[in-house]
UniProtKB/TrEMBL annotation:
Keyword Transmembrane helix among UniProt keywords: yes
Residues annotated as transmembrane: 12-32
InterPro entries the record matches: ComGF (IPR016977), N_methyl_site (IPR012902)
Species: Streptococcus dentapri
Primary localization: other
Protein name (record): Competence type IV pilus minor pilin ComGF
Keyword Ubl conjugation among UniProt keywords: no
Subcellular location: Cell surface
Superkingdom in the source lineage: Bacteria
Keyword vocabulary terms for this entry: Competence, Membrane, Transmembrane, Transmembrane helix
Length: 145
């Protein structure tokens, strides 16, 4: 009679297999989470992609404009009837403003320094990022005729 009243239960081997499957799943999930986290931080801090976008934007802004002057490490240009200025702000961005400094539009963030040089109609902008990355932008304005 004692053998007929046996209760069905998990064996020790079945419990160990279940624990192994659960722990393996948790480890895989943790590893994928760490990889995803590192990829997101890399993408969000990628200065190289920001630089490429900045170059396209600045080239577009400067096309069709005429060089006025470079003063106090700022590039002053005239585009149509507007006088514009480009340069590093007091904070950590490189921005576009009116020549009088109003209406700013940040173009590039995490900038430590921006040095602007002029040689004839050629302008060179050297930018250093917080990450230590240094890039140079060169633009040749059309000769005034």
């Amino acid at each position: 009679m004692w053998l007929k009243d046996k209760i069905r239960a998990f064996t020790l081997l079945e419990c160990l297999v279940a624990l192994l499957v659960i722990s393996g799943s948790v480890l895989v999930y943790q590893g994928l989470s760490e990889i995803l986290s590192s990829n997101v931080s890399h993408i969000s801090k990628n200065d190289e992609e920001d630089w490429l976008l900045f170059c396209q934007q600045l080239r577009s802004e400067l096309s069709g404009s005429s060089l006025d002057r470079i003063t106090d490490n700022k590039l002053y240009v005239t585009k149509g009837t507007q006088s514009l200025a480009f340069g590093k702000s007091r904070s950590d961005d490189f921005r576009k403003t009116n020549a009088d400094g109003r209406g700013y539009q940040p173009m590039l963030y995490h900038v430590v320094s921006a040095v602007i040089h002029q040689q004839n109609q050629m302008v060179t902008i050297t930018i250093t990022f917080e990450s230590g990355l240094e890039r140079t932008f060169v633009y040749a304005f059309e000769e005034k005729g």
